[in-house]
Amino acid sequence: MFKKVLMFLSVVIGLSFGFSVGPAIWQSLHISHGFLTNTYVNALIFGIIFMIVGYLLEPYVARLIRRIQETVNRQTTSTLLFGTLGILIGLLVGYLLSLPFASLDIPFLSSTLPLVFSITLALVGYQTATSRKEEWRNLFVRHDKHDKQPVSAVDAQILERKAGETFRKYKLLDTSVIIDGRIADIVKTNFLEGVIVIPNFVLTELQYIADSSDSLKRAKGRRGLDILNDLQKDSEVPIEFYEGDFEDIPEVDSKLIRLAKLIDAAIVTNDYNLNKVCEFQNVRVFNINALANAVKPVVIPGEEMKVLVIKAGTERKQGVAYLEDGTMIVVEDGQYYMNEWIRVVVTSALQTAAGRMIFAKPVHQQDKLEAAE
């Protein structure tokens, strides 16, 4: 269908071009055949030429249009709305500024400069409108509240801030938590409420990692992109993209904190340092590692379990085993039971920033101590 439309447009443009400009072209080339002076013959000739050119360019034009469609589809409704408004305002201002130059007889100033003004100010209007979306939204929200419109009208706004002291409607995902992948499972279990927001600068960093020359980084970046695609397709939680940027801030983490303060959002991460910075700046943060540690089964001293000692510990004669959830168990005298399943009794548990550690000793040693007593 698209190919037929493109061919039709090419023929129409060719006919119009040949009818209006064709004779002048032959005259400038000093070609004076009698039939070339006929406007209808020129329209037919250039119609065929443009049809051939359209046929040859069709794959490239189709590819370009698909990319434009993909780019537009990734934009949020608010970005398209404010971006279009900014472009229209920019075009209007450019037209008004070009009016004094249009009446001049200087070729460049009267013809080219108005076009330059219009394109430049349209781009400036788009960038300005999209980078200040939140300010426009807040202006509309305040205006509605001032007019004392019903609550339903306020709820219809694109952005609803200040949902409560313990709840943040918007959850910002950082690069580390996307690459980690566990966020997809958490979202599918409906433990995360509100709206997930993927900032454009986080997506840009993810694409940069996916294009890295290092194979490990490249694999992580592609995994992160796959996680985002899965979330967008299967998630019941709404997902939005934030197209704005903070060009005065170079670090992605600092941009996340700035955006979280701007829209009153919470940051979802597994980065320990970002977690601490968020706490210091009073930004709500959800740490995936903290959640994982919180849902691990609780063990108490004296509890018995069966483990496989797989490597030596850092201290003398210690062995190391792991539970299914990844919790590390340090077994006293465990080096004597390397690669063996043994029953151990828990002596203590320690919670660290890296996770929970359990200290245990073989059951038969505990039995000997009790017999000696």
Q: How many H/I helical runs? A: 15
- In one word, what is the shape? elongated
Q: How much is the radius of gyration in Å?
A: 33 Å
The poorly predicted ranges are: 142-164
Number of strands: 11
Strand order, largest beta sheet:
6-10-11-9-8-7
Q: Mean pLDDT, rounded to whole units?
A: 77
What does this entry look like structurally?
With 373 residues, the chain is α/β, with parallel strands linked by helices. 57% of the residues lie in helices and 15% in strands. The chain is built from 15 helices and 11 strands. It has helices at 2-20, 22-28, 39-74, 77-102, 107-131, 133-146, 151-155, 175-180, 182-188, 200-210, 215-234, 252-263, 272-280, 288-294, 363-372, and strands at 170-173, 195-199, 239-242, 266-269, 285-287, 304-308, 311-312, 319-322, 328-331, 341-352, 355-362. The strands form 2 sheets. A 6-stranded mixed sheet has the order 6-10-11-9-8-7. α1 packs across α3, α4 (77-102) packs antiparallel against α5 and α10 packs across α11 (215-234). The longest helix is centred in the N-terminal third of the chain and has 36 residues, at 39-74. The N and C termini lie far apart (90 Å). Residues 142-164 have low confidence and may be disordered.
